[in-house]
Design goal:
Blueprint (H helix, E strand, L loop, with lengths): L6 H15 L3 E5 L15 H6 L7 E4 L4 E5 L4 H7 L6 E4 L8 H8 L5 E3 L7 H10 L6 E3 L4 H5 L12 E2 L2 H4 L3 H15 L3 E4 L2 H8 L1 E2 L12 E4 L4 E5 L6 H9 L2 E5 L3 H8 L4 E4 L6 H6 L5 E4 L3 H7 L3 H26 L9 H15 L3 E2 L4 E4 L23 E6 L1 E3 L2 E2 L2 E6 L5 H18 L2 E3 L4 H13 L10 E2 L13 E2 L18 E4 L2 E4 L3 E4 L2 E11 L2 E8 L17 H18 L5 H10 L4
Helix pairs in contact: 4-5, 14-15, 16-17
Length: 600
């Protein structure tokens, strides 16, 4: 008879390993060797240990205590998933809740040892831990993957086939991008650059893959000098066409597993550039003693967040395809005679099929289809074991997106499937006002995302409520659905480095919301492209272009609460949606779209 370990059993096994290894406190972050947000199954240590499946969190284990830190997107979900696991929940950014660093400062005693796997923790994060432990004579033990030592049936690290993203989409060759990186290296005084983040590597080399869920990247590391660009990967996942392309771009190949031993050997006597916020602590720790460290934001991060003209045109086309898929799905949904026979999974599956019919090669993340109270969990996921059926009352929230060779999409719509309460109408109207205000912003060049957030949050704050997340995030080009450094949020970053200036070509989501536990969740999300506007004696003004093309449900709207400016913005948006999409629809679908985009 096979015995199944409970999370309490796993926690006890970890504590035994800690004791044997002389480790007093052990930290398990959500991460892989590349600092990825969404993880392959091999790296989902947090789920294995605690049961929590969210994309952001940190576990801290001592002989007496075990805690999970996660942010407001996951409070409800985390509380349910870790029940009975032996872990308590630390609700980040809430009054009286310590940060991980504050907890370590109070918990680690003089001379004790803090343990973690140095390959899955960034150098910047370890710096924060070291600062918290100053004066304690504490030791770091970064060489043990204790979870891996007890995870008997751990999935192997998967490597999938890669493909070239042609220059007709990217607008620039890999060789030209590498030349730009080398120019930045020279400015920084670096003669060696280690690049380990998968989105940066995929963008730089113009290749894509399938090594992370819904994120078309390829597992690998890059070593760049003035003469060489070495890609540490699994060469067997690169077909002949990809290998020839990389060779033509000046890229040579090496085995993925050789990277860790290359770090100390290749860094001797070098001035080494790396991004501490995106590079594993082990890379920093393993640099040769005589290597000079140059810590800076990856040059590629700033390059790829500003989409060039070709990428912008490609993204417009991706959103046209995605908009057609969304309208076909909405038409299907609203014309269901037996709506209550459908589950959250049914509507999610049908939407995926609509996207694939429109040309998507994958989703950009797991679809969130949440009925009624389930929508109060920002990152809810229906499963065969736990899901709701649709009802002809209340809200259905669907947050979804697709990966097209033209670009990545991310859109949320909240639909009233039947009667809603007056409170729900007020909340829905506030969220729509919030989305429209930010989307219509006009601002001087030099303004940051941080300073614009209040435009969206204002109508929700006016109701005396808030949403415990940012208003929006950057999005990659056929890459990560969450990709900085741009992102709308009101809370001031810890350092001024986080205050990213909005530049023409940046794409950021606009997704305010309201989440009432046990009742409902509302979110309306569009992607915004930052573009230049007029220039006069006051300077260059900027504005946003809505990339997302999809009607907004008006059944729960209180029209008289819209200002004249908001009404004009909504009507102009809906007119654009109809104009851009109707030619790709059937006659019945186009007639329905015209009806739901009539001026308010």
């Amino acid at each position: 008879m096979e015995l199944t370990l409970t999370h309490k059993d796993i926690l006890q096994a970890l504590r035994t390993k800690m004791q044997l290894a002389g480790i007093d406190v052990y930290v398990i972050p959500s991460g892989d060797f590349h600092g990825s947000e969404y993880l392959s199954d091999h790296f989902r240590c947090m789920r294995f240990v605690s049961g929590f499946t969210g994309s952001a969190g940190t576990l801290v284990i001592t002989p007496e205590e075990a805690w999970l830190w996660t942010d407001g997107r996951y409070f409800i979900q985390a509380e349910r998933q870790i029940a009975g696991s032996g872990f308590g929940l630390m609700r980040m950014a809430q009054a009286g809740v310590p940060t991980v660093e504050e907890y370590l400062k109070d918990t680690v005693k003089d001379g004790q040892t803090l343990g973690f796997d140095g390959r899955v923790v960034t150098a910047r994060l370890v710096e924060a831990w070291e600062k918290a432990l100053e004066g304690k004579n504490a030791k770091l033990a970064a060489g043990r993957d204790l979870v891996g030592e007890i995870w008997a049936d751990r999935e192997p690290q998967d490597f999938h086939d890669a493909f070239i993203l042609e220059e007709k989409y990217t607008g620039e060759s890999a060789a030209d991008k590498i030349a730009r990186v080398r120019a930045e290296m020279e400015k920084a005084g670096a003669d060696l650059y280690f690049l380990t983040s998968l989105d940066d590597i995929a963008w730089l080399l113009n290749i894509r893959g399938a090594d992370l869920p819904h994120t078309p990247v390829v597992f690998g590391f890059l070593e760049i000098t003035a003469e060489k660009c070495i890609f540490y990967c699994r060469p067997d996942v690169l077909n002949g066409e990809v290998k020839l392309y990389l060779q033509a771009q000046g890229v040579t190949l090496a085995a993925y597993d050789l990277f860790w031993s290359a770090v100390p050997a290749k860094s001797r006597g070098k001035h080494v550039l790396y991004d501490p916020a995106k590079t594993a602590y082990r890379v920093k720790a393993d640099l040769a003693p005589d290597a000079a460290k140059i810590e800076a934001v990856n040059p590629t991060t700033l390059m790829k967040c500003v989409k060039n003209k070709t990428e912008q045109e490609s993204m417009r086309e991706a959103h046209r395809k995605d908009g057609i898929a969304m309208v076909k799905w909405l038409y299907w949904l609203y014309n269901q005679a037996d709506l209550e026979s459908l589950s959250e999974i049914d509507v999610s599956d049908y939407l995926e099929q609509c996207r694939r019919d429109a040309g998507a090669f994958d989703l950009s993340f797991d679809t969130i289809a949440a009925m009624g109270p389930n929508a109060a969990m920002m990152h809810y996921k229906a499963t065969p074991e736990s899901h709701a059926m649709l009802k002809r009352e209340g809200f259905l929230l669907v947050d979804s997106g697709g990966q097209y060779k033209d670009g990545s999409t991310d859109i949320t719509r909240t639909m009233a499937l039947g009667p809603v309460t007056e409170e729900q109408k007020r909340h829905y109207t506030a969220v729509l006002k919030s989305m429209l205000r930010l989307g219509a912003a006009k601002f001087l060049k030099g303004c940051t995302c941080y300073f614009l957030d209040i435009l969206a949050r204002g109508p929700v704050w006016d109701l005396g409520i808030d949403y415990r997340c940012g208003t929006g995030h950057g999005i990659g080009f056929v890459l990560n659905v969450h990709e900085g450094p741009n992102g709308f949020r009101w809370s001031k970053p810890a350092t001024m480095d986080g205050l990213v200036t909005l530049e023409a070509g940046m794409v950021t989501t606009d997704e305010p919301g309201v989440y009432i536990e046990g009742s409902h969740g509302i979110r309306i999300e569009n992607e915004l492209l930052c573009v230049e506007d007029e220039e006069n004696e006051y300077g260059r003004f900027m504005r946003f272009e809505h990339l997302t093309l999809c009607p907004i449900d008006l059944a729960a709207l209180i029209p008289e609460e819209l200002s004249p400016e908001e009404r004009r913005a909504l009507n102009a948006y809906h007119a654009m949606v109809y104009e851009r999409l109707h030619d790709g629809l059937t006659a019945d679908e186009a007639a329905w779209l015209r009806k739901v985009t009539q001026p308010v």
